[in-house]
Amino acid sequence: MAWRPTAFWRLRRLEAFAGWRHGSNWRSLLGSKPRQKQRDLQQRLRDAKGDQVLQLFQREGSFFDTIHLLTALRAVVLSPPSSGSLGPLLKRAAAIAPELTGNDLAALAWSLARLEVKLEDQAAFATAAHALSAATTGCGTLKSAELSVVAWAMAKLPQEPSEDAIQHVLQEVKARVDQLTGKETVNLVWAFSKMQVRDVNLIQQMAKRAVKDFSTLNRQDTGNAAWAFAKADVSCETLMSRIREKFLSESDAFDAQEFASIIWAFAWLDAADEVLLRRFRGTALKVAGQLNCGGLARVSWAFASMAEAQGPLFGQLKSSARRLGLGSFGSTELSKITWAFAKAEEIEAGEPLMLDIARQVEERMATLNARDVDMMAWAFAKVNADTELMARLAKQAVHLAPHLDAQGLANCAAAFALLRVAVSGWRPVLVRRSAEEILHFSAQALCDLRWALTVQGWVEPTLENAIATAPGWAERSDYVHETQAGAVADCFKHLVLVALLQNLQDACLGNANHGDDSSIFYVDTHAGAGLYEVKEPHRENLRRLLSGSHGLEMPASLHAYIDCLNRFEGYPGSPVVALDFLARHRSTLSEQRAVLFEAARSNVQRLCDHVKGFSGVEVLHEDAYRGLPKLFTVSPRSPHLVFIDPPYDLCFADNLNFTLVQQIQQHWPESCVAIWLFWLGTPCVMTIDPGDSTEGCPGLDRCLCVNSRSVPARAPKLQ
């Protein structure tokens, strides 16, 4: 009986090599050479292509151990099979996943993330992906390299990993962040950004680690680092500076996709200086024909976001889109290039490329996600696309409304309003979701939403009140009036103001002669600080104006304006110009009153100091778009002149002004309203009559727009 233990241990060895637990018949192996068979099978798998691997697994799958299975998966990744099903192989992978640790788990993760799966194998693939997620949670400690591969794969797989798996990886990274290599750091941040894991302190630590090991990063790592840390929305100025230096010194060596990641990152962070922009332009022209769909989408989006719409550049990008074929773009990639071409004004509604995009959107409508819908809606509205297609997008927006963020809601609201699209269900869902997200609306988004409600004629008092008091307005940066102080356009604007006041004074004199009211009530909606220091080059322009006017015969309004300039040490803004005029003509007026609105806290105290010497002045620290309508009830008497001179730092800001005009016309029909507009075209004088479009202000009777070549830096943001 002494032979029994020996036979027993021999069978155990055969079990280990032949995978007996997976169904092999150990008795059939007693007369074979199991070790040699295992080695032969492994060698054949290493040399096999995808189709051969599937055939081997079909014939000898019962002999596959863990190493064989992982080798087989790697082989079908590197050489995808032309026929046959991956289902059985993936089911086996799911079965062994709970037993894997360390390098084997990383190998399985890598293969699953890179695998091309046919529709019929999706269910088995999803099972394997979920098994990987579960195995990650229970695998214990992984080496740093293994951890970075597993995290990368979890982020790349279409199946969302479990929260437990994400937290396990996160805790593992926190425990060893100082031991990570530069490449491991980049891969992990890429994974966290992709999975939308937000841990500011950890990302900042990892940024420092990446800077420390930056010299070890190759160009692909550099591109990945740029994308990953930018997507994480964490300030990493030192790292981005190193990436900038590396790109500028080696730009010709970066391939097209690496370049796409870098330009996207700097556009997303709004961190590209003029030197970098010039290099971006040159590189884009060289590599445009080498970009894949994702790279082309990123590059197009980046240039459009940075307002870099140059004809030759976007012409190349459009050619690349046609070369790749729109059918090869994913829905998100398609929405990005459509938005970019529309933003750059490089596409028109009737051109072949736009028609092809419209066909693609029609075919994919049911698969578009919320972000795709809002970008497509904005782009189609920009090019004045087919309203029937927009109506179908609006129906999809109704369905996806729970997933639209504040910016998406604002984009869709403005886009559908612009083309007057209103489908069943959109209004109530827009109002409800906007109220839910109101704390997250930016100033621009609030502006878009308010304008959309006005254009559609939707009266929603509760939402209007929420918009008026939303915190997003406070995040809007204060307009720096000093940048235009003394500019030719600014002087001309104040000259027009003086001419209007003179006309009012003449009317008052006529009224006084007939025993009627001879008072003037003035309202300034964007008063600013009142007085400013003039800087070059405007100082020289102002000096020439003042010195060149001596001894000349001038219209009374110009003479009065120059006198005003000479009376103050600083440069007077519109409220001081108006108050100075009223003060100098006090004897001819029965009463004078002025209400000055200023929303910027930094300007209010300065304004109060600069106008305290004038009588009949009320300074209100409030946004005029909210504050002025309050005067309708407390001041039934109409102002003689309402002067609206906004910064135009937001798109659709001009439409807010037209809305304000409507309100004034309704409550103060006798008032004169002066709006300062910037017309971005050939200098002209333009009259808008009642029959003309006034962008949502049908009650505007007549508008005289006088423009100048001198426009503020932010004026190009007008749409």
UniProtKB/TrEMBL annotation:
The protein's GO terms of the molecular function aspect are: RNA binding; rRNA methyltransferase activity
| Record bears the keyword Transferase | yes
InterPro entries according to UniProt: FAST_kinase, RESC6_dom, RlmJ, SAM-dependent_MTases_sf
Query: Per the UniProt entry, what is one GO biological process?
Result: rRNA base methylation
Please verify whether the record's keywords include Metal-binding: no
Domain (RNA-editing substrate-binding complex 6 protein): give its ranges: 143-453
Q: Which SUPFAM superfamilies match?
A: S-adenosyl-L-methionine-dependent methyltransferases
Report the domain of life of the source organism: Eukaryota
Question: What sections of the protein cross the membrane?
Answer: none
- Gene3D superfamilies per the record? Vaccinia Virus protein VP39 (3.40.50.150)
What are the protein's UniProt keywords? Methyltransferase, Transferase
* A Gene Ontology cellular-component term: ribonucleoprotein granule
User: What is the recorded name of this protein?
Assistant: Ribosomal RNA large subunit methyltransferase J
State the organism of origin: Cladocopium goreaui
For this protein's source organism, the top of the classification is: Eukaryota, Sar, Alveolata, Dinophyceae, Suessiales
